[in-house]
Give the backbone structure.
Amino acid sequence: MTTPIVPSTMDASQPKHEEPTGGKEISRMAKEKKKRRPYGTGCLLKVKTGWAIRWREPKDGKRIIKYETLGDIPKGKASQILLERMKAASQQDAGPPKPAVSFKEHAERWEKDILPMYKFATRKGHTWILNTHLIPRFGPTILPAVTTQEIQSWVSDLFRKDYAPHTIAHFHEVLSAVLKTAVTWGEIPKNPGQGVVLPKLTLRREKWILTPRQAGDLAAALAPKPRMMVVLALTTGLRRGELLALRWRSLDEENGCLKVNEAVYDDQFDTPKTKAGTRVVPLADPVLAMLRDWKSRVKRKAPEDLVFGTRTGKPADSNNILNRHMAPTCAALKLPRATWLTFRRTYSSWAHDKGVPDKITAELMGHANVYTTLNVYTQAVTDSKKAAAQRIGNELFSIVQFSGVADAKGGIDSSPKASQTNEVVVNAGS
């Protein structure tokens, strides 16, 4: 009769331990004997002729037991042979190797099955990069041949062609996402996009923020619509897409706040960029007064109408606002070119300067690292957030020297005399 021996256990030729009597503790060896071998680990067998091995292999959808006599050889050599047999069996389990697919074939499947789960703005950018840069460069290559060295060579070519480091990093991000899915789908063993050295990110345009005086001068020189957009961006920190997606139902005049639950990109409406982007943003009293005045001037003011829509009711084009209004006005004032990110960055910097707690600022700006998200329909605006909005808004309304003084009809006087004041007088009926 043969006794099975697991490679990791002691030799069966060692003396056996008998279980002590009298209820005393069982010996260590007896405990080991009671342990069951993990299924499929195989075993060594000590037989009269030396060593034998036993393991399982797949056959016709089942796993059958295989047995082989090795003869009088060292135990270590027998263990090595057992491991080799088990490795070969595991490779049979995995089935025949998948035929290699080209990068183009995989990329097209990725575009069809994975990309639709991204937000519209991301889908648009990723699709352009995929079809303009990645497929033309790697398309015919089979996936296993897309190596880290091959990607590094491509990155170097882009750098020599004077692509911006930020652009190269964006291209690499999309390529890495495509290859990561290839790993998940079992097409390649690891992502060759990892380990690629990218150019150091540098800023072609220096980041800057507006001072209250610069903000006032800029807004004073703008037409009413872009002026209102700039004031709202500076006093709420809204993202561009959130600002353009505001509807009149978003304005809660009674509580003095905006309910942010939409964003728009290329006329496509969606939820905000992050979960934390769905939020309630308090308005400083002067900003609320300006919004009421703006509402009195526009023709479209139904609840579903956009606050900054076009004459046909579509969202305003943010680039047109920047190119036709912001850029020439900044040039005339000898200011760097302001963008929507400039206004958002200015809001954050002014909030910090005014001592607003970082957590409050993050929640007001809809940053993704905020763990508690405001319920836009049921949760009231907290006193601390309202106070923060007032502190920021009141500071910024040194900029409201541009908006002038409300006249007796509740309108806004934009005369030079009125623009010299640092206060806003709002008619009680406005």
Observations:
- The two ends are 102 Å apart (CA to CA).
- The mean pLDDT is 78.
- The first helix runs from residue 28 to 34.
